[in-house]
Amino acid sequence: MATDKHFLERIPNGIYFLLIIGAMSYITLYPLGLPIPVTEMTRATYRAVEALGEGDIMLVDQGYGAGTIASHEPGFVVMFKHAMRKGVKLVILSTSVEGPLLLDSALAKINPEARGYVYGTDWLHVGYVAGGEPAYAAILQDFYSTFTVDYAGTPLSGMPLAHELQAPTYEKIAMVYVQSAGGDVCQGWIRQSAVRYDIPMIQQPLEMMVPTILPYFPINCQGILNGGIGAAEYESVSGLPGEAVKLSDMLSMGGLVCLIFLILGNIGFYLKPKGGN
Amino acid sequence: MADVIGTWIAALLTIAITSLAWKDQPVSKFANHIYIGVVTGNSIVQAWANIMNVGINKITAGNYLYVVAILLGLITYARYSKASFWLYRYPIALVMGIGVGAAMRGSVGGEFLDQIRDSFFQLSVPGDAFTSINNIIFFAILLSSLSYFLFTIRAMRSETAMKLSTLGRYAMMGAFGYSFANTIATRINQYAGRIAFLLIDWLHIAG
């Protein structure tokens, strides 16, 4: 019987997707609880947040959209919880237009008011910020004068936390935490806060953007969370398990299936007759 | 009740847009168009809130300098008229100038000087063999990768230099592989979130 050397090439793409989805669904139904190895980037992030004191202010760029919510939301949730545990105040803005819309979903998992975190005193949300790098520079110079109202339209003049951020704001920010799918946003914040004012910075770029930010670690960027994987590691190291830990089995299984496909693809390529047109 | 309806809509739209993986379908196009429509509508609302927050509110509070910024913003619409097209270049030039100026201030330090400074370290760390090996590998890859980009120096055409640049090329291939693996991890992670939503929040068959 002749061997069909092209059979791998003829498998429709949809089959591959179905196999990946099937494998990931199976592991969700029957989780293995695989161990989560914690990288030095995540440990460094944890140490940087642990070094903050009660009353310190963390500026958070919740710059993610619907397309990357699985990577970023667990990171936002665990970071907010860790900050609350330390008594760190949070000032949240978003460089993504979809960010403010998605904040409610994250806040429902944190429930800051129920844990004694008072809006306007312990945390604040000013919503979407346009303008790119010049806007980051303006915020770090004088946050209070840059904005007039919070995301809900309430004047900042009535919020104690906003008053704490009067010029020079960069002297009052203890840490900047950036979540973004775009490398330009991450690098922009590094240039404006870490390089210019030497403000400690931690970043959670999308997994695929980590190689772009890695050269800044640890000299300009004290910690990096590698997207959703980094969030799972952070949940593990901080003792605050959440959604990312639940997804980690699925990530392992999805990655394993992709690896098998890569090996099969290369075997198929090797078997393919060489030469000709 | 609203939560249940919302979950059902989200679940059905997730399935509809996933059907694109099999082939382009009317349902996937429908879900795609809904997403684009929602995002566009939300972008307009957020942009308007931003203009109010950092612009109009300040003018109404008596800070009239912001009128200049609003006018410059309005001038960008001159590009839609052939007669006044030239006007739109001025606000764009201003925005570009400010953007480049703001970026340059941190670029030299963060992307050049700090990177060079960070590459100066002790190759051999006494009592820490792992760090020592790591540092030596880093140094070798740094030198070889840099040598790959020295195209115009005659000395780089020697056999030894070519071997060094080949090592640099392999090192960069490894870096691209790491980048590609991270890209796969990103895609898997995004869909893992959707699968978890379907099985846990919608069907309630997993915990």
Helix content of chain B: over 70%
Biggest sheet: strand arrangement of chain A: 3-2-1-4-5-6
Radius of gyration of chain A: 22 Å
Question: Total strand count of chain A, please?
Answer: 6
Q: State the end-to-end distance of chain B.
A: 22 Å
What is the CATH architecture annotation of the largest domain in chain A? 3-Layer(aba) Sandwich
Q: What's the overall geometry of chain A?
A: elongated
Tell me the strand percentage band of chain B: under 5%
Topology-level CATH name of the largest domain in chain A: Rossmann fold
Structural class of chain A: alpha/beta
Q: Span from first to last CA of chain A?
A: 26 Å
Number of helices of chain B: 6
Low-confidence stretches of chain A: none
Determine the mean pLDDT of chain B.
Answer: 90
Please give the largest β-sheet of chain A.
6 strands, parallel
Rg of chain B (C-alpha, Å): 27 Å
- One letter per element, helices H and strands E, the order of chain A comes to HHHEHEHEHHHEHEHEHH
- Under the CATH scheme, which class of the largest domain in chain A? Alpha Beta
Task: Give a short synopsis of this structure.
The complex is a heterodimer of chains A (277) and B (207). With 277 residues, chain A is an alpha/beta fold.
